[in-house]
Design brief:
The protein has seven helices and 20 strands. By secondary structure, it is of the alpha+beta class. It has one domain. A hairpin with a 5-residue loop joins strand 9 and strand 10. Helix 1 crosses helix 5. It starts with 10 loop residues before the first strand and ends with a helix. The N terminus is likely disordered. It is found in: Nucleus. Pfam families: DUF1907 (PF08925). Monomer.
Length: 336
Amino acid sequence: MGCSTSRNADVASAKLYVPELKELATMLQTALKDNFETVETEVTECIDLTKWGCAAPGIGGNCRIIDVGGVPNLLDPKYHKSAIFQLPSVAEQVGLKGAYIYGACAASHLVVGVNAELMPTEHISKKCRCTKYSKVLEDGSHTMEAYDSSEFGLLGNFVACDGKTTPVVKVRVKKRKGEENFVSCMRKGLAKALEESKVNVDGAKSAQIGIGGVFKVVSGKIHGHVMPDFKKTVMIDGPEVEEWLNFYEMGPDLTCLSVFLSGDPAKEKQESKEDFGLDLRLEHTHFFSQSKKEGGHYHFDKTPDDVEYVGYFLPAPVVYRVDNAFARERACQADK
């Protein structure tokens, strides 16, 4: 892969371990019990998620996780105009034309006019789109509006599926007593469970679980960010990006679209700095309100005594990596 500002349509994939739903419910119960005072997990039929503002009633059927682009597209201005993607094209690239897609990504600046957060929930074949975007205003406040496009920019983490109502794992937690946020707690708990069980998956270097789900912040406030417009200079990931982001306290009554993995199934050793695997982002959650102009990127809750989450989750058997921006940057460095 040479050094170029044009997009490369490369697609890689890796198998994931798919536990039985009862097993997954038990794993999540164990993962969450030390972090929240009340934890309830069960296998049940998914509620009608259109009532939560989603474009499909369920999250089941032919599930697959997708990681598109990457942070390098955000850091360097030379990619801001070229790193533009279309959800229907991504669905076709992973073999699920017309899919229901939900998750967390950046908006297209060509649609919004500025850099912004995107909360995609779109059933492509049914031509049903409930996507929202959130942007920073000139006075430093933020707003959220409907987004009438399938286009997104820079990076994204998604679940593609049929959008069917199927059995799922329902999780309800209240009153946080530990330090982890809701999503990180589940993700790290699954990683620990897999490490202890030594599960193998044919064709993968290491067994990992990938989860997609929709959850609601029923009560309490959360800490989230909204990206401002692009910087005109190259940023270094880390403190510089944290300082650039705009953080707000939002909630409750937030619908959260979440994608997370216990680890990268293409990596032999998860902590290795030489083994890049698929360069996967291990968790990404965006949220929107149905009653207020609030939306953005979820970090953690700010009111541990009052917080309550309830959500519906499913494992996916495969993760796809599309247009890997990290691999492109390594190729650029090698060409110098």
